[in-house]
Amino acid sequence: MESVKLETLNLVLNGKQIIKDLNLTISSGDSFSILGESGSGKTSILKMITGEFTPTSGNIFFGLQRMNELPMEKRDSVLVSPEDSLFPHMTVYENLTFAPRMRGMKKAKIHEKAIQLLDFVGMQGFEARYPSSLSSGQKQRIAIARGLMVEPNVLLLDEAFSNLDRHKKKEMHDLVHTLRKHLCFTLIVVTHDLEEAIRLGDNIGILNDGQLLKGESIEDLIRNSKDAQKFLKVYASEQEMKIQDVFDILKQV
Amino acid sequence: MKIFASLLKFILFPFFLLPGLSLFLWSYITVWKFEDWYPKQFSGKGFYYFFSSGDYKILIYTCIFSCIVAVVSIVLAILASSGLMRMNTRLATKFEGFLYLPLLFPVVGICMGMHRLFLSASASSIINIFIMHVYFSIPYAFMVIYSGYKEIGRKWFLISKNLGLTNVQTLIHIELSMIKEYLYSAFLFAFSVSYGQYYINVFLGEYEDINFSMVIAPYLQTSNRNIGAVYILMYLLMGYVVTSFVRKGLKKWKV
To answer: Rounded to a whole number, what is the distance in Å from the CA of A147 to chain B's nearest CA?
Structure first.
């Protein structure tokens, strides 16, 4: 069953075309990574999905429901960004339980879910701590747990782990896999890190000049799309890697 | 930095303490002639007069009135600030300018114009005064609260909406909690502006609505310093008590 469907999506901001005729369908429970350079419009796609940006034309569907006119708070998606997003005046537990409480979930259920998610993200015992006393990695764990507390159908990660070192990133990737296995949500990841894109996505797309290049699989995409090959060459030179290293990453992951 | 702050407090403290001390002394002194090193006549008649004349009731009324004005101004300033914060920035800057307009016009000029308008509308003088107090308090409340909103930005609003919170929930539980200190400062400003208003009440009140500034004014012009000092002391004390109470209340307020 389709979870997210983006249909000929276009976005023009300040007279500049950011996204061109974007078509994307993600099945329920699947994950999709969008890889692109900084400023290529990756985040704009997520902002259109959450409702912060209104697409100039095209449709956004969650299942069968058209989302275009639905206000942000009524969409079944949660965005996790790299910046500090935990409410600084609330403890970890309050951060987790606040949104579901406001949405009218039952107290007992909220508590049970908070404990379960804290367990999943390995943050038991941190309930009474304030965000200011947590490390970046711990904050991101709580931010993801908080997002999942409201039981979204779609979790959106916007360069969520870009502030973390390589080792911590890997830990977070494993965590996201564990959470997906248990909670079965659809995941859309936006990143400029090839390794992260491949680790987290069942499939990946490359955003190039506002157009999303995608194939049946990553191998298929690289084999058949010259633009994708060109993008990877540029990516390799920007990351000061040889193109062979990029393919090594692909193989390893 | 800590040494600098302590030094500043040490220097500034006498500036606040000395006038207070002088007022306190004068509230008990009846005569302190020139060339005398210390006062020779003391009396509590100033305090007796303050309580027996019933002027303390006017002080309480003024305080309550100013609190209501401050709260209304803050509510309006919050609505304006949160609205502007959610708007496109270019338009927001223009609207921001409009909200500072009352600061540019002199109180007397506005009051005279409004008096004519209120007379033709035959509105009650208390309502007229209330409207004018709010009109002059809003720019101060707005200035403080909007700077609080600028400090926190749109980030928390978007995060809250993303988590499924409504506008009202975001406003009450997230934004206001984050700008608590600004709320107190805004209250302080709006309350002070209203608490010390003299012209508005004189022009529009037609001596039906008397506030404490109007009661104090004659005593400041007479040679009876004793009563004048008592009245000013009580005026300051009442203001201090109210603002301290509000500060403590805001500190305790938790989502």
So the answer is: 7
